[in-house]
Every structure is written in structure tokens, then in C-alpha cells.
Amino acid sequence: MSTGLLEDMRDGVEVHLAPLTVVQYRQMIRDGILSDGEPIELIQGALLYKDRRDQSGGIMTREPRHLRALNKLTALLSKWVESRNAFLQVQGPIVVSPNSEPEPDCCLVRGTPDDFGDDVPRAADVLAVFEVAFSSLQSDRRTKQRLYAVAGIPLYIIVNLQENLIEVLSQPSPDAGRYEMH
């Protein structure tokens, strides 16, 4: 029986991956290789499915608690941005490095949507990122935290549905790849 690539990697077999760039990822969407709006994001050069499930659903499931938390967060933040030079972007991409374009559940972005024309916000434009997490909690605490901290995004908030709490991370340390204040 053949061993899969992930098993080889787990077992310490050296694997040489060719990471994608944001430019290549967007070209794949333009060429129809990936469908625009497909629940995939580019993380450190790899295409990953977004995980929105609870303990009973499949990875592509839109779990009701996740959706409810996102809707409540959107309503609250929409009021906050009204009087500021910022807008709320929901489940849209942000560029955090040449090979990472995650799609956080929502983020606060400086300026207006018109400021971005045919592009998407970059990390320097983002004031805060919000992830609603149940099954993705470990990845949000590790991989996403590293991405956002290295990119210097000032505030990272995880709505933790497993423990019913909100985790606020601030003071990014780009060199360390983490946030200093929890």
C-alpha cells in the first residue's frame, strides 16, 4: 500500500514543496482553476480549506454557532466604524506576505472600500483581525497568530466558541511571530 504525502511528512521524509505566491493564487482564480469565492485561503504558500465546522460537521459545514457569532460581531463592529475612517470587511482576503492571503472572518480596515480599487487590503491597512473559532481554534492560535503578528497587525481577536470566551491579542512582535499581550 502506498504512503501519502502527508504521512511521509509526518514520518520525517524530506518533501520539497513549491509554495504559491499571492500573484500565482490570484492567477489561478482568474484562469478558473479555483472558483472565486471558494472557501480556500492561501496560507504560507499552501491552499487550505477554511474550517467552520463544529464537532459534528464536515470541514465545509457552515456551523450555526459560527454564523451567529459572526453576525453579532458584524453588527457590533458596523456601529463602531460608522464614525471613524475605517470600514468592516467580512470574510474577505487580506495580503499579509508575498505567499499568504488569508480570509479572516472579519477585519477593520483603514479608509473606505473605494480606496482599494482593484486590490485587497494589505496588512499595513488593517487595524484589527477577528477569527471565530471552534474546530479551527488551534490553527487560529498558532498559524494565524504567527501570520498576523509577523505582518504587524495591531490587534488580533479570537472569538473562541469552544470555551465561550474572547481572546484579545495585542502588541505584535513581528520578529517573534507572536503577540506580547494576551
Give a brief description.
Helix content is 26%, strand content 25%.
List keywords for this structure.
182 residues; alpha+beta
What does this structure look like?
The protein is an alpha+beta fold. It is 26% helix and 25% strand. It contains four helices and eight strands. It has helices at residues 5-10, 22-30, 64-81, 137-150, and strands at 40-43, 46-49, 86-90, 106-110, 126-133, 155-160, 165-173, 178-181. Strands 3-4-5-6-7-8 form a six-stranded mixed β-sheet. It is globular, with a radius of gyration of 17 Å. The N and C termini lie far apart (46 Å).
Strand content bin: 15-25%
Shape: globular
Low-pLDDT windows of residues: none
Helical stretch tally: 4
The radius of gyration over CA amounts to: 17 Å
- Fraction of helical residues: 25-40%
- Going across the biggest sheet, name each strand in turn: 3-4-5-6-7-8
Q: What is the mean predicted local confidence, pLDDT?
A: 88
Number of strands: 8
Q: Which H/E pattern describes the elements?
A: HHEEHEEEHEEE
The biggest beta sheet is recorded as: 6 strands, mixed
* Helix-strand makeup class: alpha+beta
How far is the N terminus from the C terminus? 46 Å
